[in-house]
Amino acid sequence: MKTRLIEHASRLLHALLRTRPAAPPVASASANVLVIKPASLGDVLMSTAFLAALRANLPQADVTVLVTTWAKAALAGNPHCDRLLDAGSVGFPGRYGLRAYRACVARVRQEEFTHCFVLDRSPLMAVLPRLAGIPWRAGLNSAGRGIALHVGVPCPDERHEAEIYLDVLRAAGFGVERPRLHYRLRAEDGAAVKRLLAERDVTPAFPLIALHPGGGTNPGQAHVGKRWPSGSFAALAARIARAHGARILLVGGADEASITGAVQSGAPAACVDLAGALSFGQLGALIQRCHLFIGNDSAPMHLAAAVGTPVVALFGPTPPERYGPYGVESAVVRFNSSKGDVTDEREVRAAAAAVARLLDASA
């Protein structure tokens, strides 16, 4: 009922707030462009294919991205946007109020943007550029929630999220060629990772595998059903260590140390636990050095795709056709999240087979 009320109200507001569009952005002229993509880390990483295509089509434009403080790390140093506008918590569902939203609208209005792309399904994000006086607006129109957009794009469930974002560009009349995710690696992060691996006596022998058994958390949110059981990860780690002589680097935040610790206890000889030891940029540099990444549907999985490392992705309740690894060699293994922490040997065998296929392809 709540969803239907929101959709009905959005359609009414769209009719009341729509305006005559200004001229669309064109490659031959400069434009002051805002991209609204507030959260979360993984979703913001999936927007980097859009940002690259936007830059290719509008090389003279000044491009700003409105992003939450939490997700800014996904765009640190991104060459396809000129600056980031910190939205605080605005745009993170359930984490902001009217006062913060009004302040964000006022901040955006001050920038005098000429064009806006909204890569978010929230009606509050869709109407923000209208309230801020931006005269040309395009974006996602999920079930009629694209309030006051001049160009609205549907969001079919079976379409990949990165492709839906790119559809906004296509609907605006721009071409998209060879899209992929992007993450700018910094030399200092690579140097820090090199030192850390030397301290942990990790040599660059083949295969070096990053394994992330955590994920499913954002500020105020926890979707633990997205995690394959730690026992399954431990069984997989032990199996691929025996079969391939793999050295496995367990990665995750400090809050995931108990998960990586459980995996290491199940496969101690093969694993080096690095949970909490890396910044987001250092994690990207580490994954880029690896021959393979294994993990759940999470931001590190999308980071692996963004740095070009092949991915074995474990998917439970979320649809891989929508959130799977994008633009990189990959394999998806589905698991039954209703079993909780029970290890399913068939899932472990399927994951091991996927690892073998990708390692053989990169050998």
Report the biggest beta sheet as strand number plus sense, adding barrel if it closes: 6 strands, parallel
Poorly predicted residue ranges: none
Strand content: 15-25%
Structural class: alpha/beta
Order of helices and strands: HEHHEEHEHEEHHEEEHEHEHEHEHEH
Count of separate DSSP helical elements: 13
Binned, the helix content reads 25-40%
Give the C-alpha Rg. Answer: 21 Å
Distance from N terminus to C terminus (CA atoms, Å) equals: 53 Å
Which shape, going by the Cα principal axes? Answer: elongated
Summarize the structure.
With 363 residues, the chain is of the alpha/beta class. It is 39% helix and 16% strand.
Please name the defining characteristics of this protein.
363 residues, alpha/beta, six-stranded parallel beta sheet, 13 helices, 14 strands, elongated
Give a structural overview.
- This protein is an alpha/beta fold.
- 39% of the residues lie in helices and 16% in strands.
- Helix 11 (299-306) links the parallel strand 12 and strand 13.
- It starts with a helix and ends with a helix.
Write the SSE topology.
Layout: H1 2-17, E1 32-36, H2 41-46, H3 48-57, E2 62-67, E3 83-86, H4 98-110, E4 115-118, H5 123-131, E5 137-140, E6 151-153, H6 161-171, H7 187-199, E7 208-212, E8 217-218, E9 221-222, H8 230-244, E10 247-250, H9 257-266, E11 271-273, H10 280-289, E12 292-296, H11 299-306, E13 311-315, H12 320-323, E14 330-334, H13 345-362
Parallel strand pairs: 1-2, 1-4, 2-3, 4-5, 5-6, 7-10, 7-12, 10-11, 12-13, 13-14
Antiparallel strand pairs: 8-9
Helix pairs in contact: 3-6, 7-10, 8-9, 8-13
